[in-house]
Amino acid sequence: VTWGRLQRVSERELLITDVGGAVRIKIETGGEPFELKSKRLEADVHTPRHAERIGIALSAPVTTATVTLLITPASAGE
Hints:
By secondary structure, this protein is an all-beta fold. The protein is built from no helices and six strands. The chain has strands at about 5-10, 15-20, 20-30, 35-40, 50-60, 70-75. A four-stranded antiparallel beta sheet has the order 1-2-3-6, with no helix packed on it. It has a two-stranded antiparallel ribbon with strand order 4-5. Strand 2 (about 15-20) and strand 3 (about 20-30) form a beta hairpin. It is flat and about 40 Å long.
């Protein structure tokens, strides 16, 4: 869940920016294809924006899977 702005940099990489800061998120699924899903949360909150839930949905059923996120600081201007 984030209040930041989401940008897809590549097939497996996101950039989230907010208030002059940013993080880069690399997604690894062991080669399994996936799609990103996002949903604005409509909770009654006192913030300038609503939060957004980001989901990683594997494209095919699996019996086991490992999803790894590498989150690193980034420049807000990237």
